Amino acid sequence: RVRLQHLKGLLRESRLPLPEIVDRMRFSSGQDLSRFFLRATGQSPTDYRAGNPVQPAKGEDDGGWGVVFDLDGTLIDTEMIYYEAYRRALEAQGFDLAPEEHEKEFTGACNAEIEKRVAGILPETFDQARFHQEWRRHFTMMLTESPPVPLEGVLEALEMLTGRGVPVGLASSSDLAHIELSLEKAGLRGYFSFLAAGDEVERGKPDPEVYLLCCGRMGIDPLRSHAVEDSTRGVCAGVAAGLHVFLLAGAKPEVPPERNQVKLISSIADVAWGELEPRAEG
């Protein structure tokens, strides 16, 4: 109980980034902190810090709708930072990772799945615990040294949506600590009161769980709402959750069979955010 009160104080009364709170409170990871806090309070650390009450998802009759964004490759370009972090951590143990292999196997996957896949294909000499620690250290260092810049149209879209009072959320395969740090470094944290992370769910994208978690926190109906994605895993997750998905086509993601739920775009700037309406069901 003392630990919980101390954690609450750090979340609400300090401006410390989540990774630093993880270290100070001696949690093994952002995932451990999030699960501890969720079990104890029924809220995520992010919602508690923002002062957001837990909101139940609205049903069809409620009419709530909003927009849920992916993060990596959609709002900011951190995929190559992830690649370089993985590459360096693997190189330290004498293994290689080619860019095309990373793009094919890992883009859009949650970190736990990536670590499991890497351990499954490498010999027994591979130290998974060391890899877990080292790639995270490299990622945080590179993100801090070279902060990401919002991609084309992102700031205008967020300004337009929040100015209209449209609920905006984020559903990412990344760990919560990395989401917080990435948004903070990119200057986007203030736009998002509702986050859902890969380390808060049992199954990452293409499973819809992270999108449904975010919609529930936002209090919106997925069947009337929109998502913005850039990967095959991501668009499949959004469609499975019932959302209409604006799919960035630059990385040539595969379009799922439910094509009526997907609209290909070349840039976030292609969407008329000032005129966007709830998705018509059916």
Strand and helix map with partners:
Blueprint: H1 2-13, H2 18-24, H3 30-41, H4 45-50, E1 67-69, H5 79-91, H6 99-105, H7 111-121, H8 128-145, H9 154-164, E2 168-171, H10 176-186, E3 194-196, H11 209-218, E4 226-229, H12 232-240, E5 244-248, E6 262-265
Helix pairs in contact: 5-8
Q: CATH-wise, what's the superfamily of the largest domain?
A: HAD superfamily/HAD-like
Structural class: alpha/beta
CATH structural architecture of the largest domain = 3-Layer(aba) Sandwich
Count of strand segments = 6
CATH C-level of the largest domain = Alpha Beta
Classify the beta-strand content into a percent band: 5-15%
- Please work out how many helical segments DSSP would assign: 12
Which residues sit in consecutive blocks of at least 5 with pLDDT less than 50?
Answer: 56-62
